[in-house]
Amino acid sequence: MNGLRRGAGCGALLAALAMALVGCDKKSVTGPRLVYTGPLAETTNVLMLVSDSAKLKFQLTAPLEQQFENGDVLWPKGVEVKFYSADGKRTVINTLTAKYGKSDKAKNLYIMRGDVRVVNVPQEQRMNTEEVFYDKSKRVIYTDSAMFVKVTTPTEYLTGYGLTANQDFSRYRITKPEGIFAAPPVAPAP
After folding, report:
1. Cβ-based neighbour number of residue 172 at 10 Å
2. How many C-beta neighbours within 10 Å does residue 132 have?
3. Which of 23, 82, 162, 173 could form a disulfide with 145 if both were Cys (CB 3.0 to 4.6 A apart)?
4. Tens digits of residue pLDDT in 54-71
5. What is the Cα–Cα distance from 5 to 113, expressed in whole angstroms?
């Protein structure tokens, strides 16, 4: 009986050893290969200052920034950009805010969405829309021709579809204007 048990034990040992050796074989993986496409880096409470020749050009702030492998950058929780005067005095000329922003590196384009507001501070001009593009190369702000826009100045309200403006929003053109309304006069402060 002892001989049988010893033989059975050796058989079990050999079977376990054989399975271990089989487990070491490389097996080919079938199915689609999973590739990570999420952000490579995330930064919170972003403050980015961009200058040229020691003169501040613009300042970008955002609660969250995500950077991707292709060079694109997202600001999924909102973004604010302040453009400064060219004279180097750090005077804010224009602001752009949105609930979502993206920098498309391949197109050299900023895309802003969700309650987008553009303000020319010195001229007190405001533009509201839901999506706007900023072409860094051409220094142009624009919307799709079907995008509703509202522009408010100290003397009028302008509405329509589609807009093209220069970077500081001092000159703009509404593609399909819908109405021009005189703003109500502001009562002087007592």
Report:
1. 18
2. 25
3. 162
4. 888 889 999 999 999 999
5. 76
The span from the CA of 135 to the CA of 137, in Å, is 6
Q: Please work out, in degrees rounded to the nearest 5, the angle formed at the alpha carbon of residue 174 by the alpha carbons of 114 and 144.
A: 45
Residue 106's identity, in one-letter code, is: A
Give the span between the Cα atoms of 110 and 95, in whole angstroms.
Answer: 14
CA distance 173 to 189: 33
For residues 82 and 96, what is the distance between their CA atoms, to the nearest angstrom? Answer: 7
- With contact defined as beta carbons under 8 Å apart, do 166 and 139 qualify? yes
pLDDT at 7: 46
Q: Nearest Cα to 93, choosing from 162, 148, 165?
A: 165
Name the pTM for this structure.
0.72
Q: Are 163 and 174 in contact (CB under 8 A)?
A: yes
86's CB contacts (< 8 A; 6+ apart) are: 55
> How far is 65 from 62, CA to CA, in rounded Å?
7
Q: Are strands 140-142 and 41-52 parallel, antiparallel or unpaired?
A: unpaired
Q: How far is CA 79 from the centre of its chain?
A: 8
Q: CA geometry: angle at 184 spanning 179 and 186, to 5°?
A: 145
Element (H, E) at 135: strand 125-135
